[in-house]
Amino acid sequence: MKSEQENLAKRETWQSKWGFILACIGSAVGMGNAWLFPYRLATYGGAFLLMYLIFTFFIGVTGVIGEMNLGRAARSGPIGAFGAACAARRANCAWVGKALGIIPLLGVLALAIGYSIIVGWILKYTITSLSGSLLTINSVTGFQMAFGQMAAPFGNNLYLLLGLLLTFFIMSQGIGAGIEKANKLMIPLFYVMFIGLALYVAQREGAQAGYQWMFTIDWAELRRPMLHVYALGQAFFTLSLAGSGTVIYGSYLSDDTDTLDAAWKIALFSTLAAILAALVIIPAMATTGAKLSTSGPGLLFISMPYLFAGMPAGRLIMIIFFLAVLFAGLTSLVNLFEAPMALLQDHFGLSRKTSVLIIGALGTLVALCIQGVVAAWMDFISIYLVPLGAALAGIMFAWVWGRQKVQQEVSKGRPSAIGSWYYPLYKYVFCIITMLVFACGIIFQGIG
Question: What are the tens digits of pLDDT across the range 118-138?
């Protein structure tokens, strides 16, 4: 078996800067944009949007940059990166970091397995929109029953398997030919389709009320503590920080990439995706006088299909909507599975295709078995493992590897060295944010 150093030396890299940025945008654009952000914005109005933008800025310029550079510095995922950080502090302590790196790795694998079930749901709605069979349901109760049957144990086996097959096919083709090409196709199409949907909804009578609510700031709302808690959670989870996915994507970066430049683009386009989803969903609800009374799967698979079914060209609208959401889901799912797959490549010397096959078999088996309990599964991961993984990544890079390494890595690819402002902002602000997300998630049983 080849050594870890030999395996890491032969790792793939991104073929272009925009390929990397689009892949990171793809990892960030997911269900939180489509089914949670519009609900929070509909609940709190423009005040929520304001706080979300503020939190996104601080998390983007700290955590996103930090995780990218942690991966690039070690040329490895969380296990290798945490091990390298501990070894830099004390030569015989690499094993401590590697042991801690298992936490975010398990977290992202579990998250990927749960997320694959949701992608299977989206794939089914996309295909049944195309066939027209989804339009045969003509009541909220009907959509509730259809969703309940789909979300039951072993209730969506075929589409779950198809979604996983597509995901693992993309991954098996490699970084450049698979993941990069897929994101270059799906992410632009996602934005084009949602812009088209937003323009269509804008022509509907009554949509103006939705825009007014979205972009009007009621300053009294800022006195509500939960607005800030949910805005923090939305920003944190939207940027896909878990100490794993962004770390592994960063590990494929060349040293001439300016990660500060990449991070603000990722934060910007992730925010635009969330706002576009809201520009479709909130005004669409306003055209009927309805209010968003639910978030999560109920919004995406019950409320929105029923609403679209009653619109002119409803079938076309549903096809575009679910196809766009499917693209967002697939690009996120590829990112989530990449870190555990890369572990087998980097540390065990397996080929990419063999590694994908092993992770694919494990992920498929578990996903099939947890279909009826996916909500509880995802709640546990998002409350405990995701923020803990992000916190560990921040601590390893900023506190263990230290100022000199952080400044050195973040300065790579830039026309001039990063300013002295970055390190304390990352070391204190980001690490405190992750601890707040962790604590608030436990107290309120989920904030994102």
Answer: 999 999 999 999 998 888 888
